Amino acid sequence: MGANAELAGLMGPQLELLLPVLDEKARRLVLGAVARAAGEGGTGAVAKVTGASWQTVADGAAELASGLAAPQGRVRRPGGGRKKLAETDPGLVPALLALVEDSTRGDPESPLTWTTKSVQKLSDALTAQGHPCSPQTCWRLLHGEGFSTQSNARVLEGRRHPDRDAQFRYIAAQASEHLAAGQPVISVDAKKKEQVGEYAQAGREWRRKGDPLRVRDHDFADRQAGTAIPYGVYDVGANTGFVNVGTDHNTAAFATESVRRWWQLAGRDAYPQATRLLVTCDAGGNNGHSNRAWKAGMAQLAQETGLQITCCHFPPGTQCRCLRGRNFRSVNR
After folding, report:
1. Which of 67, 99, 136, 300 has its CA 20 to 30 A from that of 8?
2. DSSP H helical segments within the chain, as ranges?
3. What's phi and psi for 224, nearest 5 deg?
4. What's the DSSP call for residue 75?
5. Cβ atoms of 4 and 45 closer than 8 Å
6. Is 33 helix (H, G, I), strand (E, B) or coil?
7. 8-31: per-residue pLDDT in tens?
8. CATH of 164-200+223-332, one of 2.40.50, 2.60.98, 3.30.420, 2.60.40
9. Distance between CA 72 and CA 132 in Å, rounded?
10. Hey, which bits of 200-294 come out as E strands?
């Protein structure tokens, strides 16, 4: 064994203890320093006793000899290390964009777009096309091109009817005229159904620590307890709300009965001189514009109370119905 190999052999056990705690830059420079100290043939000897790459040892020795080691804060010199796939494979990014083009959704003028294909599927497709690419690289390239994962944005509206503004203006004029005359105006709508029983609900409440309210672990429907169906009545003039809760079905009869109970429990006391009533609601469901049971129920309520009841439905199927006693008249707006 020559002198150079002997020095490298003596340093071998020490390097085995030292190298694992060093970063890439420090390991390279330490191996190069030992190789330079060993003299001619030291690069091969150090590589042999440490198991390091001959090129790594040679690079470390060259950096020390030239004084061009990686600057502070860097492990490699600028330009060192393996090039990114997008640089070594110029067709990678165009191929990736071509794959996601058909599945891309969103506004093309927006700086953010999103795709429905997973990075794993994109990676597999790129590899099959001759562009080996990991899912992580796909994710990085997509972000670099302005893509991100986003939820659907429910903002697209249907075709705007030319008379839509006139419809709202008509309803607003009806409400203003009734309110100016001291007549009641209400807005009605069925609210979200809720199961009755010991079910988990959103939100929190104050309780002693370690004593949460115990509820069922599953929200299976309880046919005996039923379902609570709130039906709201909003008094526009008084700015007050009234809720009637049913436990059977959300029908036109339930909607009519809710308006009747509002009048009996709150409306007639708040408007003792009322002769008219304006009801505004949406165009579907139990109080829909084509629901004959709702029309018949409102006509019967008008007969019972002696009120002239006008019902205005909001777009898209806006209609106005005037109910006076037994006479019913439907006016399309």
Report:
1. 67
2. 3-18, 24-38, 42-50, 54-66, 85-88, 92-101, 119-128, 135-144, 164-180, 252-262, 268-270, 292-305
3. -75, -45
4. S
5. yes
6. helix
7. 777 878 888 888 888 888 888 888
8. 3.30.420
9. 34
10. 227-235, 240-246, 276-281
